[in-house]
Automatic annotation (TrEMBL), chains A, B:
NADP(+) binds at L11, G12, C13, G14, T15, V16, G17, A18. It comes from the Bacteria. InterPro entries: ACT-like_dom_sf, ACT_dom, Asp/hSer_DH_NAD-bd, HDH, HDH_cat, HDH_CS, NAD(P)-bd_dom_sf. L-homoserine binds at E193. It comes from Catenuloplanes indicus. One of its GO terms (molecular function) is NADP binding. This is Homoserine dehydrogenase. The keyword Zinc does not apply. Residues 357-430 form the ACT domain. One of its GO terms (biological process) is methionine biosynthetic process. CDD domains: ACT_HSDH-Hom. Pathway: Amino-acid biosynthesis; L-threonine biosynthesis; L-threonine from L-aspartate: step 3/5; Amino-acid biosynthesis; L-methionine biosynthesis via de novo pathway; L-homoserine from L-aspartate: step 3/3. It is an enzyme of class 1 (oxidoreductase).
Amino acid sequence: MTKPAVRVALLGCGTVGAEVVRLLHDQAEDLTARIGAPLEIVGIAVRRIGRDRGDLPVDPSIFTTDALGLIKRDDVDVVIEVVGGIEPARTWLVEALRAGKSVVTANKALLAEDGGALHDAAAEGGADLYYEAAVAGAIPLLRPLRESLHGDRINRVTGIVNGTTNFILSSMDSSGAGFAEALEEATALGYAEADPTADVEGFDAGAKAAILASLAFHTRVTAADVYREGITEVTAADVASARDMGSTIKLLCIAARTVDADGAESVSVRVHPAMIPRSHPLASVGDAYNAVFVEAEAAGQLMFYGRGAGGTPTASAVLGDVVAVSRNRLAGTWAPSESAYAKLAIRPMGDAITRYHVSLDVADRAGVLSQVAGVFAKHDVSIATVRQAGHGDEASLVIVTHTARDAALAATVDELRHLDIVRSIASVLRVEGDD
Amino acid sequence: MTKPAVRVALLGCGTVGAEVVRLLHDQAEDLTARIGAPLEIVGIAVRRIGRDRGDLPVDPSIFTTDALGLIKRDDVDVVIEVVGGIEPARTWLVEALRAGKSVVTANKALLAEDGGALHDAAAEGGADLYYEAAVAGAIPLLRPLRESLHGDRINRVTGIVNGTTNFILSSMDSSGAGFAEALEEATALGYAEADPTADVEGFDAGAKAAILASLAFHTRVTAADVYREGITEVTAADVASARDMGSTIKLLCIAARTVDADGAESVSVRVHPAMIPRSHPLASVGDAYNAVFVEAEAAGQLMFYGRGAGGTPTASAVLGDVVAVSRNRLAGTWAPSESAYAKLAIRPMGDAITRYHVSLDVADRAGVLSQVAGVFAKHDVSIATVRQAGHGDEASLVIVTHTARDAALAATVDELRHLDIVRSIASVLRVEGDD
């Protein structure tokens, strides 16, 4: 006995959407066996019907420009959204979820901006909301965070979640090139878009950080809660400085749980470039790969690695979700919606606990180190290592601190900048991965 | 309104079992929020009630030696099995599943030997069978294979799934020690058991390979289907030889899909030591860590990394499963059982496609290379690289082949062994990770 088909509406038919259509067709037999019923695309909403989409294996008559009309059709069970952006995607998905239709989306911007609206609609309609493709592309990461690690307690998530910036930083590290040159190469190779702002300024990573933090800490975290610093200011000198320390620079998204002296818990979520030791599992993640390092109380250290972007990997993640929600529908159930019971406070960046690496050019005379060290002490920042090298009447000091409040570290650097004996500050970088 | 508790029976209270009890107690509040109902341990079956188990946070009166009686109690919803071994575990779990009770087990030996019996019982009773802890401890790996990658097609799984052997090989690699010395160190540090046979002979990795292959290829694979070679024959010379090639030696479990010229698919599943290039993501997996590298058609390359053993990591994986099955119970559903629809044929080892690295001591005279190369050609094995180094009247040849049937490679080495001009074969190792 074959069960009736699970009927799918696809919103958007760009690179990822077209790949979803192809995979649904090419793997129809497998998917049917895995779900227990066939999948059928009953409609595809696009902005312009006539556009050339290559040779897609679907009846051209199912294309429509009326997305909302498609979503409302009685014969739609599952809605796949690969359009992106906040509106009209939010209106569409809220409509679908309230009507009890399962939603699979790759829309990280919407989830990070207003995931709550979607989760509320899913709870209201009794429907599934799955979004594995929204973070780290094909890497099965959200499902483990949502489900497998539910018996555990996550303390920290550190990720490389933007392929473009990882490509640029990897290339600066291997070739010694500056940011502009490496960006040019990334653009030429198709790793960076014509307008690379969302990637190089950390907006994309920031959205993903919000989604990861929400899942890891059972707390609603939005993009606005995430401290964000891009990689445009990273110089060849910074990269060389990191290399001298046996480290490399990565754009990290970090979501960390902090427990105060009085036992109160809070979360800090941030995206910024940081030095990590080359021995750290994240250091060897090269090219446009993504990886997410999770530290959990019982499970210990875990890492998930794979391709973070691209039509096929993203479509693979979408399809994995489609199988899950289809099975749920056939079983007459849906996964528990958002888990936001912990409601932890979000710490501002100034309260985040970080470490700094500061490289200074100073006058080479007696008492300089003592004066510089005094500034750190004044701000209650403890120094881990100092290296001093004299050349002519100048000397360079490379200082790595122990952990401290980020605001104290920033204030220290600010004061150093105004010190007479400090000729220039060559490099300031946060340090992650050990202490 | 609080829902009634999900009632748990625990079979076994050794290292992992005791840690499960502790975590269930310490994280009771979190678990209740995540499940939507509290968890309650109603009974713990052990061999001897009086044994000192430290200070466990449970009423001592719930211990029993009658496991079967405990499983059959009406007030048991979920059965956790951390006893291990084939019998009586199989009888217990089949009984539980047939009665519709959800089972969470870490029993890799049983799953690899007769997983079919458990899956059949689960289907019969309409119950969940979860076993994340059976492979790669705390790493959420089986759930992604079972669920997230369901929209994809896996072509190959390559894993380091035994912590003891990885510790030994990592230590041989870093110190140059021989196997016996490295094993002694592992035993002293608690990484190897008093009788290390199951680990060093590859039985443990073989069981895990069977479980991974079953999930990846939707085919029932048992431990008996897995070709198995341990690490006891790996010498310091082999490790040095690998190092010369920019490689390292790992005990790998490999499950690969092969498509014949006529389109027929089959699977080869094997465990043996192999050389992999140091640039491969698996090469940097050190100490007792585990990692599994997955190659899928759409998702591309993925890697999962983390702690493979230990009471707390294993208990964490068990608890993740307990949360999942408890939620399913509250929703009145259960996950789809085994997916074995593909029923691929298992290729014998002789038909597996592998590469060899062979290091020979030969007489240093004209025509030797030609004679040696002739033996490879006779068996249709194509040579990728040869390095020759003369010393005195002897020379050494290091030959790396292209891929070929394992039987042809083995026959080639066998014939080389009997060649007059071959003084000795210093090292024969399979090569993985590139071609």
